[in-house]
Amino acid sequence: MTGNLLTFIVLLPLIAALIIGFVPRSNQGQARAVALIATALSLLLSIFVYAGFDQDLAGMQYTTHYEWINIAHVYQDKALTIGFDLGIDGLSLPFLLLTGIITFLAVLASKNIQHRVKEYYLWVMLLVAGLYGCFVALDLFLFFLFLELTLIPMYFLIGIWGGDRKGAVATKFLVYRGIASAFVLVAFVALAFKAADATGVISMNMVNIADAFAKASPDLITAAFKQGIFLVLLLAILIEEAFFPFHTWLPDTHEQAPAAVSMLVGGVLMKIGAYLLFRIGVGILPDAVQYFATLIALIGVINIVYAALIAMVQKDWRRLLAFSAISHMGVVLLGVAAMNEAGLQGGIFMTISSGLLSGLLFFLIGAIQERTGTTMIGALGGLSKPMPILSGFLLAAALGSLGLPGMSGFISEVLAFIGAFDAFPVLAAVGTLGIILAAVYLLWAMQRTTYGPTTAALEGVSDAKAIEYLPMIVLTALILLIGIYPSILGDLVNPTILSYVTGIGG
Amino acid sequence: MLSVEQFLTLAAILFCIGLYGALTKRNIIIVLVSIELMLNAANINLLTFARFGLVPAINGQVFTLFAMTIAAAELAVGLAILIALYRNRNTSDVRDQDLMKW
Amino acid sequence: MVEYAWLVPLFPLVAYLLLFVLGRRAQEGVVTAIAVLASLAAFVVSLMILSEVQANGPGAPYMFHWLTVGSYTLSMGYEVTALNAMMLAVVTFVSTLVFLFSKSYMKGDERFVVFYQYLSLFVFSMLGLVISPNLLQVYIFWELVGLCSFLLVGFWYYKPEAAAAAKKAFIVTRIGDVGLFIGIMLLFVATGTFDYAGVFQAVESKNFAIDWISPEAFITLVAILIFIGAIGKSAQFPLHTWLPDAMEGPTPVSALIHAATMVAAGVYLVARAFPIFAASETALTVIAVIGGITAIFAALIGLTQNDIKRVVAYSTVSQLGYMVMALGVSAYVASVFHLMTHAFFKALLFLAAGSVIHALHHNQDIRSMGGLWKKMPVTGWTFLIGALALSGIPPFAGFWSKDEILLGAYASGNTLLFVIGLIAAFCTAFYIFRVFFMTFTGEFRGDKDTWDHAHESGPVMTIPLVLLAIMALVSGLFNSPVTDYALADFLQAGGLHYGAHPEHVSWMPYVATLVALAGIGLAYLMYKTKSINPERLANGALRPLYNLSYNKFYVDEIYHYAIVLPVVWIGRILNFIDKWIVDGIVRLVGQGTYVGALGLKYAQNGQVQTYGLITVLGAVVLLGAAMYAIGGVR
Hints:
The complex is a heterotrimer of chains A (506), B (102) and C (634). Chain A has helices spanning 5-22, 28-51, 92-108, 117-136, 140-161, 166-199, 206-215, 223-240, 249-256, 259-269, 271-284, 286-291, 293-312, 317-338, 341-372, 388-401, 408-423, 425-431, 433-449, 466-484, 487-504, and strands at residues 61-75, 78-88, 201-203. Chain A is mostly helical.
């Protein structure tokens, strides 16, 4: 049973998608119910995985292996093996839990989708399966498959249920991430074939590849080769993670996508890039990451400051939050570039924290949009009076996002900056500008949204409904929990990080 | 005893005639006939190599039988489409069948 | 009792949680009771701790594990030193009285419970800040008190000025906080620890794991960075602009947060981390200069303000400048001493001002006050005591502590600082008595209706005033010849031997008192007897100077045009670049593809025979190329 837990987690949404396919179109409640049950079960199983996870081990746990594709004599007499390999370690477990929580809450928050409901949940379920799959796949081929599985559903989710520019934005999303996928594929194939030089078998299993790369002599796998692959991978990550100058799909996507889809994009989908950076970049090509450390840190700092400055002048909350997320993910790059324990741990913390905060913020903005019909900062004002609960949570989320101690953003920033100050004092100091600017743009937006006299049109708007309390409370509680007791996340991640850092040799 | 070259030459000539017909003739029926010629040229090649190839085997002849069957089926479909087209548009000129542009 | 120091912040935290659970339906009496009792309990425990520290000296820190980062461990904990023990007592004392005072002041407010929630959270954070044994924990609570300040300044959220002031308070202090943040990050990188003890040890041995800077320069850098945090929080020049604006919050908040406790946190931090500063002469000089500038600068602005709370706020800025200056000249004890006395008399002044404002239905303009002594004698008396203490008239508290600071400045040999201190003292006495005379003496200048309704506040408000007045009267004696400088000995028990009590200069008390009396006398002549007409002065030869002071030296305007607008414009320009150049290129690629396709689509002419011909030609070309590549047919 435990061996197949991860398989069930991934399969449940797929089965749900199948069932939704057979649900009559007229009965919209059934499709929603099936989706809710499937995501809830997957979440429960993920928590079960967490409960049974041995936090002291650095390696993969819950591994599942099925033979899948074996072809002899593919290239230079070497066999190609692709397996259905799933597994989880301290690095991917937080991502798995994040996926479980955000997907469940996003389905819960999809209540206001009234149009082509059955199709909507069908696509969401396929997307959810892809998201889960990305974080548990141990085989690069499988990972790539799941990565592509997130692409198409998202295209339709934006393109059918989006705002007034949905068509163009959905295409933009698809093209951008499609290009990223191409780079990912190139990097994966190069990795697998080079590893085969050392092992004699073209295996797509990332554990095997990491092993081969760690053990192979520098003559066989040259530093230049690693740097080359890493650059390709970095390009893919920069697009996936929406870093300047490849970021323009993200604000558009967030602006046009429905709130629940924005939760999925900002909460989980965007984090796949960061996961790739940790898993493949730091895990398999640490020397190359170190070689390009200054470049990565520089990109990180540029993103922190650039996105923060742009966020400051945005007129739409959703665009503001998109740029805010870019700025936060810049901190991840800065932490990773440091390539030390604190920096890496800070990077993972920041990724998870940003996922939770994005989920919460987009949920709240969606709830406000549902009531007021707008997300334009200028059209809102004095929301504290008609909706004190939503405003209170929005303030809490904004404070968490600007790195208030006691919430997850703070400890992430502290760790990432400890690492960064060790490696790049000057760049890190410039990066702290982001801390000030985050306060400026978030509080400025808060001041114009919830403070001040209530706009006449907004008098008497209703406050949070019972069903909305669950996402708000769960996400806020998790943000607080990580902030107050970071060990709950740190102890999970630490063994993996230590094994990476020892791999670097310092 | 005929040599390989002779068979192959025959096939090549047949193929070229077929190709010429398929690319230049205006009447769809002639185009279809030309396509049959090309198929038959290929069949001759298959038979030739089944008999004179490096590893003589029955495969080529089997393939040829398949090809002939499929060619017959294909021709049936083609003629059916042709008749439908003619009824609709009252022409059997290839150049008029250009709906699939732009 | 020292090992139970965690109880002190726990009480207000429990009160906060209780009030949070109770929600808005709770009765005002119950709410006040919970908050006041919790604060009182914290005060009692603080007193017990204080007496124990007095008897046995400070205890060792108590630490527990918080987070493992690779091979490092971050811990949290608590620690009681002499300085902490004193701060605990002061904070809990003032907050208990403010909690009591607020019951009447905030009566009937729609969000009465929320107010007490925020206040309790603030007291918890402030106490947590005080007992923190490491810099990371200090930073955590440092931000939390900033948050509470933000929430409470913006408590009346529907007032646009309050919302703007709250945002400004948070952002301006955050600029300072980032300095502190960088400072403690660098310290951790260099020493591998956040703990005060470990850091002090490393500073003493000058043993840092950092190679890009010399140890001496590193200490100076870190000290100045930490001090930048103090500049923000303690509203020192040039980050002082938020504090006067923060007066938009309810007056009890101003009394507790923006006078007695939070704004003193900057001074407290520098005092707590003093060994780092003591190791760098440059850093001390910077501190002294900033403190001196702030003291005189804010005092000059205070001379002409007409809002009763703003005058007291500028006075706070100026007094904090004094404390900082004292630290800069190594007069450690004098600074902490002034911190304590100031907490009492400034909280008193604010609460008395609050009492006046409450009686006049939230009118804060002293130009429309006057003659209130007759209506509110208790408030008048207590305000007078506070004003005398602030001016430094013996035997009130301010006299003793200000005297120590002036002595320290004089002893440091920096005559300029000493003179600045004297001038600021003169201004202080003048502006506070200007407020006193304009508010409590003469004829009432507001409308008759207000005058008829004005009355002395109830006991809930006057009891805190009286208690604080008593402290303003006697707290100076703790460090005076009367008690044989008990406070100095107490503070130095932990081994901190900085500026014990500087050598006494016999003429100093007389000069200081004379200067203060001169200020009071001038205010008397101008606003009581009216023998000097202040308006003629303001509109006459002193017009430019008056304008400069009245408009706060245009600092806000300078910041608006020199910093805020440029940053916003950079944002706008970047946004434009992002939209039209970065995304423009993206769209150009898209459009280019589209336009190219528009042209190429005409190749798709629908003629199946053309397609066939091209296919054949393509095949021939490919075949030819393949032949060429393998060297032709044999």
